[in-house]
Design a protein that fits this description.
By secondary structure, the chain is an alpha/beta fold. The chain has a single domain, classed as 3-Layer(aba) Sandwich (Rossmann fold), CATH 3.40.50.150. 28% of the residues lie in helices and 33% in strands. The chain is built from six helices and ten strands; from the N terminus they run ααβαβαββαββββαββ. The chain has helices spanning 3-7, 20-29, 46-53, 65-78, 113-126, 173-179; strands spanning 36-40, 57-62, 83-86, 99-104, 127-139, 149-152, 155-157, 167-171, 184-195, 198-208. Strands 1, 2, 3, 4, 5, 6, 7, 8, 9 and 10 form a ten-stranded mixed sheet that branches. The longest helix has 14 residues, at 65-78. The chain is globular.
């Protein structure tokens, strides 16, 4: 059983509201002719559902059987369709060049750096030429940077709370430009807000194959 099978049923991890930057990205995608999109690490399906509602052809992949079950049930209740599969982020069961876009939110940074690099290689592999990715990363400005046990540079494992045992890698713009060296980077935007007195900081990367 994946750690996320335990975490995802909790309400804070299975919200149904899409992130604002995903809403903006979907608006960009809708200008194309019904693009085929992969929601990588789709969890309980909030973004897969939103994209299906907007008329996109949606696929989703996640390591958590529990998350996939929740996503399928939510889609069924809304009369929506998306092709969901159980898969790790860095070994995708898809052919080369089969998606117009890939989104990955609140997920890729739950790995060591080498696994993140592998995920990006796989993401690029399944993208069509001129396909676009939207991926968020934890910024080193966020309140939780340095929290837990450091297992490699800028990478920590939580030692308490809901995410005990979960890896968090923290990035900055310089590192992200290196990671996306094989892509054409369109933008790297800093998104920040204060929640209960704590700064939550993310870097949102939009890039093209």
């Amino acid at each position: 059983m994946s750690k996320w099978d335990q975490i995802l049923p909790e309400k804070v991890y299975s919200t149904e509201e899409p992130d604002e930057f995903v809403v903006d990205f979907v608006g960009f995608l809708r200008k194309r002719n019904r693009p085929i999109v992969l929601d990588l690490a789709c969890g309980a399906g909030r973004h897969a559902i939103y994209m299906a509602e907007q008329g996109l052809e949606v696929n989703g992949a996640d390591i958590s059987a529990t998350g996939l079950k929740m996503a399928k049930e939510r889609l069924r209740k809304r009369g929506l369709e998306a092709a969901l599969v159980k898969s790790a982020m860095n070994y995708l069961p898809y052919l080369d060049s089969c998606f117009d876009a890939v989104i990955c939110t609140r997920a890729i940074y739950h790995q060591k750096l080498a696994a993140i690099q592998k995920t990006l290689l796989e993401t690029r592999r399944v993208l069509r030429k001129n396909g676009t990715v939207l991926i968020d990363f934890l910024s080193r400005r966020t309140y939780s940077f340095g929290k837990g046990d450091e297992i490699e540079e800028n990478t920590f494992v939580e030692t308490e709370g809901h995410e005990k045992g979960v890896i968090h890698h923290f990035a900055d713009k310089k590192e992200l430009r290196r990671l996306f060296n094989d892509f054409k980077v369109l933008s790297i935007e800093l998104h920040e807000k204060e929640v209960e007195g704590k700064l939550r900081s993310r870097l949102i990367v939009q890039a093209m194959k």
